[in-house]
């Protein structure tokens, strides 16, 4: 194996470790940074994200700024927006050289996700069209002493049932952020007459996550793509 390839693999492992450690303290920006770069198009966003992820020590706050700064333009993202009649879809826009995934999720009327985690990765979710509603839950059986989120006197999250800790509407151009230290979530399109479209960034990328039932039964779910780069994927390529 070439030394350059070995070095590249070591760098990616280091970056993944750094990003996962950052989930222990990162909370999210409410608005773009005052002196951050401008993002005038979806292609600008993708290029800027690639530049940020060139470093092992990704500035996750800058990644947040970039997602906030992009303003939805349907002419730019329409080719990636693929809907399914029965369920929401995950459509890959950019694979981020294996360092991040940028996806467009399409939500039919009333479609929603299960309650799930994010495999110790960062998740940024930006609304492009319509509205979504996020319900957030405590992560079962995790200590919450260190971050002040516990609703229980002993500092432990109740292990018998999911504990809802908030519900937030997400409007066009808003950005929501979550990681496993902040909890689990469920996302749904509350409208029964309009579709919704959202732009998601996951870093590091992951191909499985945990799904939770109300009784806390946990299962592992494989993460798939309904389409890649605007083209419908075959069943064995998802």
UniProtKB/TrEMBL annotation:
Pfam families per record: CDO_I
Key words, A-Z: Dioxygenase, Iron, Metal-binding, Oxidoreductase, Thioether bond
Residues given in the record as Fe cation binding sites: 116, 118, 185
Known cofactor(s): Fe cation
Cofactor remark: Binds 1 Fe cation per subunit.
Enzyme class: oxidoreductase
Pathway where this protein functions: Organosulfur biosynthesis; taurine biosynthesis; hypotaurine from L-cysteine: step 1/2
PANTHER family per record: CYSTEINE DIOXYGENASE, CYSTEINE DIOXYGENASE TYPE 1
The protein, known as: Cysteine dioxygenase
Natural source organism: Drosophila simulans
Phylogenetic lineage: Eukaryota, Metazoa, Ecdysozoa, Arthropoda, Hexapoda
Gene: Dsim\GD25380
